[in-house]
Known about the structure:
By secondary structure, chain A is of the alpha/beta class.
Amino acid sequence: MPKNNDIKKVLVIGSGPIVIGQAAEFDYAGTQACRSLKEEGVTVVLVNSNPATIMTDKDIADMVYIEPLTPDVVKKIILKEKPDSVLPTLGGQAALNIAMELEESGFLAETGTKLIGTTSLTIKKAEDRLEFKNTMEKIGEPCAASVVVTTVAAAVDFAETIGYPVVIRPAYTLGGSGGGIAATKEELIDICTNGLRLSRVGQCLIERCISGWKEIEYEVMRDGAGNCITVCNMENLDPVGVHTGDSIVVAPSQTLSDKEYQMLRTSALNIITELKITGGCNVQYALKPDSFEYCVIEVNPRVSRSSALASKATGYPIAKVAAKIALGYTLDEIPNAITGKTVASFEPALDYCVVKIPKWPFDKFIMAKRTLTTQMKATGEVMSICTNFEGALMKAVRSLEQNIYSMNYGDYSKDSIEDIREKLHLVDDRRIFVIAEAIRRGITPEEINEITKIDLWFIDKIAILTEMEQRLSEEPLTKELLLEAKRMEFPDRVIAQFSGKTLEEVKKLRKEEYGILAAFKTVDTCAAEFEAQTPYYYSCFDSENEVNATKTKKKVLVLGSGPIRIGQGIEFDYCSVHATWSMSKNGFETIIVNNNPETVSTDFDIADKLYFEPLTPEDVENIVDLEQPDGAVVQFGGQTAIKLTEALLKMGVPILGTSAENVDAAEDRELFDEILEKCCIPRPAGKTVFTTEEAIVAANQLGYPVLVRPSYVLGGAGMQIAICDDDVREFMEIINRNVQEHPILVDKYLMGKEVEVDAVCDGEDILIPGIMEHIERAGIHSGDSISVYPAQSVSDKVQDVIVDYTRKLAKSLNVIGLINIQFIVYNEEVYVIEVNPRSSRTVPYISKVTGIPIVDLASKAVLGEKIANLGYGTGLAKKADYIAIKMPVFSFEKLRGADIGLGPEMKSTGECLGIAKTFNEALYKAFLGAGINLPKHKKMILTVKDADKLEAVSVGRRFKALGYEIYATRSTARVLNENGVEAIPVQKLDGEAPTILDLLLGHEIDLVVDTPTQGRDKSRDGFIIRRTSIETGVTCLTSLDTANALLTSLENVADGELSLIDIAKI
Amino acid sequence: MKAFLILEDGHIFEGKHIGSKREVISEIVFNTSMTGYLEILTDPSYAGQAVVMTYPLIGNYGICPSDMESLKAWPDGFIVRELSRVPSNFRSEISLEEFLIQNDIPGITGVDTRSLTKILRESGTMNGMITTNENFVIEDVVNTLKEYKVTGVVGKVSCKEKKVTTHENFKPTDFELAKMTYMASPEMKEAIEKATSNGVCLGEIAMASMQGTAGIAYLNKLAEDENLIKTHYKVALMDFGSKKNIEHCLLKRGCEVTVYPSDTKAEEILATNPDGIMLSNGPGDPAECVEIIEEIKKLYDSNVPIFAICLGHQLMALANGFATKRMKYGHRGANHPVKDLETGRVYLSSQNHGYVVVEDTIDETKAEVRFINANDKTIEGLKYKNKNIFTVQFHPEACAGPQDSEFLFDEFMKMMEVNA
């Protein structure tokens, strides 16, 4: 079936802000699909509220709306743009839900717009629990038995018929709170009672427990003619019970015989056929390890995180093919871009092994529960490719950038064998390292399997790795031994550590004496059966190198930003990709190195060559040895790339753009202070320290409050505001848990207005596309603040000072490329608090709203062009016609135990944009896009720290004026009432009902404003209040500045007459 | 112990010896299936060849004997990148290495199989030697390899005596058994019980148990109306190296299957008045099977419906005067897309062939192309005009590989039904 020519203009719905469970993979899928649609001459209209994405670039779609993803907004866009079709399968669950609503309300029919890629019937069959169960029953595909109950008695009845254990999942609670597994009637009564109470609708799902079964996934494609293929299958190392997004996943499956493989494959094809999906689909199975029994866990009738992983694991571009199918093509009409000889209706054959490991935010949320459950907690992931599983696992582990380089991680020296046995029962992010330790202690693989249910095959692989550790520490480092260690991807530093040699000695022995070098292989979808056209490579040892260095053009190495984590998100992929495109346009051959399967940068057609490799010095050096690039750019890949600067210089690779010394100067306190002094730029007073004692002395000299933080960190990691010596002691202890190579900084904390600029510099001139101002006062990480462009309350005088300081700093740091500077404006004085001579998280949004292609200009500056000649002027650019507000978005509901109070350490996972002609409308859109949609009970809870009490009065008054009933803790209530704002005093947690907890569990509260005491909040009460509100789905704000902004937005809620702004026309 | 794989073009791969210690010369072919090494090892079509697995981790799930496609392993040698130390699967009885030893198959592990595959892809299938003798003289080995030619393999793999299996002897596979018993829903279990007590054959129950509510309805109807119970067609299966699952697919559909040795005369088969004839898969150069082709001509002239797979398909083409040719490196794997030109549908198929029917030599008055390979557009299936004959190059019986085209056996059933 050739292309359907009735489809001329398509609305693509994106997935919105990045939250846990919905990350960069949709930018990858969306970008690929939009390009695929445009290739076919289709006009693409795009809506996505996430400004950090590549898909919202004007070169990706024809019309781009960075607007809140709500059905009303999408309706407006449809009415304005009149697309003939809507493609909702590329924007995750968010897009599917909107499509469903538009279809069910009859809007699509009324406007003559059709859904392509899926139908509402398909979505319903896959998403509605009962419809799904009936559909599976019809085609004989088993699901785990389950029932929805509203009483404990009904739950017990059901459990008695299917047998214990059973899983309890309360309906509509976030973060899986209140759920659990019950092995006995007593446990069931206990969990179910609590679950029914927590559930907003008073319902629990009771399900047969299949935890411990193998978890297997299939990625399936189907076209309109009914042709089906599976792109690949994947096996989770972690058995059922851990969310697949939190599992270590291997592709293809390793422990399934062909009979099991084909059984599940046939089942997946039956399901996609019955659901009549046209496009991609993901089917998850639980497979009993000791029989052929299986259950269908879930079907996602759209592209997903797993499909992004499958695409990268196989080289099969799922989103691209799905878009072509949506246009009417059949699989056999779509060529396979990798081979050029085959067609899309084939199944990739892998001749390597792929391992994915999630990246969890537990380093950020040290209080959060690390237990892994059916609620996903990871913010991102890394993938690695090798010819053996051991090697792939080792490469993946070091790609996480957590200072883990082998299976030997964590200190178990104080644990007895019994302690280790006990720890094996704990399912958390450290489980594989505990398994490795268990093996070292002689616990048998069978026992480990018995406890963890992890397949013996995987346990044996970990055993092989621990045996190699042993051999390296006992045997002489012969060529055979070293080769074997390298074959399983032991990095030189680990070999050095175990063999008692230095890194240099090992490297020399390996490379010079033994000639053991990394070889590169191609990902070609066909296991070498056909010649591949696409340069997508991975390294391994003990093999023939099949990749030749090209020598035609000058070559530049672009280092990516690794896994998505809090503080280093999708915006750095945006920058890396744009830098690559820019370098390419300027005549360079581009080489990308990255390890994140969710991103656009690891799509094989972005750079001239893609090396899917860990971003460590040794791995990068292997590539450098082969390619001999003329230079490397590190300023676009966030801290991950910056960290490689020194190593690259040692390899003799010139750093293009700002020099390494100057990057250092910005990070090194003393050097930086010298520069500031030379430029006469003030900064809050501060000192560098190493020990706790020094820190306390420094803090007292500066006067509390002070900021304590390690240097060279991401997103304010480990940064805290201390108000007393005890705080300093506590924070220093936490910081020093990891060995610090650099001193720790103690700074005077000024609570002023925070202002931020990004600038492009060529060594002489600068271009500042815009000045941004934060709604929240200093003390809250810039990534967690609401950021407003252009700055609204900065005087002309201050603005001139900021431009002047920016120019001076850029010049004295010799910045070539990008610089990001954060200022505090305090009593009309401007202080510099942070300088990053690299790209930042605000670059994408400022590029979009100003229409200035910041990364492209910076890349040109890096290549030696002068800003003055680039056509965008110099100095501070003219203000855009629009106001753009970047709103942080959090994933707290997914992380049990994490404190949601905002502070100097970044906690948000993503962002959305509100863009409009007026400040109020932009603010309203930003809140709407962030999903802060207050229900209509008009009841709120206010509880603030002492310092905020007076300011709370005006906040209370404004809420009151909006008709809110205010509940407040006793002291807050007293202040409010004394000042004429009526508030109902309530107990915190204990004491007479109603307490705050009762109110929250009554599900009638719209909003909680709770400002935590400064320093790390010691009061368990406040913590429990904030957690409970998050877990019952109540919006909770922890800064009065944010509350005031929300009030402004609420007071100015127009009438839904939001304007639409096409970014592509800016 | 060290082992070497020496190729006809002088390439030498060093690895570690596995399996039998014999030195062996064979034609080296690669297979891209990621699972199914046991099915591949026990597929008689690999007789006269040494198989390279392109997937690097082999032996992970050990040996599950019920998955064997014949009673023993056939390849001359087995070449892998890495052999699993610990096989892990609930059905596994021994390790792959033990199996190779038991079957006297020499092998080599630790070979860069991707590099080897690229050589075979670029230069075409060639001969090679697996040896543990470190003191080989490369010139001599290459000369020997160049002279080596595999012949007469069909005779070696075919059964020696005819054997009849009735539908009552149908033995469900492990998965079919699971679907009929512990995985069946209560409704399905009830329907199966009723159908069993009413004498519905086990094969039909196994098929129905896969089909959800439609299967339940079908079994319930069968239990009520005996007239619906399938005729047990008598099928003659010419064994040129037949995989077990061909017979299984027929038995499952209620057939009585008589397996004949490859040198059986057409008259002998036709004298038994079979309802249908199946020509099986098998090894080697089809053009070499001159005598068999003569017999197939007679089968073609009879009015008996014929379904042929792989070598059978090539032999039927040769019997009609079409030509076959050797492919550069053949199709061996579980991911080959074939397009049904009648419906436009594409199916993924399991394939194992080094020869192919030459398109230009097909007499359009006698046959039309029904299936082509969606990748290289080579002939994958023919339908003979004015005859109840259709043949396919790929493996609808799967094992290893996708089961997408098993419906072709149903078409064969239909053909016999119409003819009866």
